[in-house]
Amino acid sequence: MPAECAWRRLVSLSLRLLLVIPAGLPVRSQVEAQSDNTVMDNITVQQGQTVHLSCSQGDVVTHTAWLNRSSILYAGEDKWSVDTRVSLVTFNRDEFTIKIENVDVSDEGMYVCAVQTSSKPRTTSVHIIVQVPPKIVSFSKDLVVNEGSNVSLMCLANGKPEPAISWRSHSIQDDDVDLDDEYLEIPFVSRSKAGLYECTAANDIATDSKTVKLVVNYPPRVFEATDVGVTLGQSGVLQCEADAVPVADFEWYRDDRRVFNGLDGIEIKNAGAVSKLTFYNMSETDYGNYTCVAINKLGSANTNIILYEVIEPTSSTLLQEMTSSVVEQTANEYNQLWEGPGAVQDGNSGTVGTYTPLCLIVALQLLLAF
Question: What is the pTM of this model?
Answer without folding.
Answer: 0.67
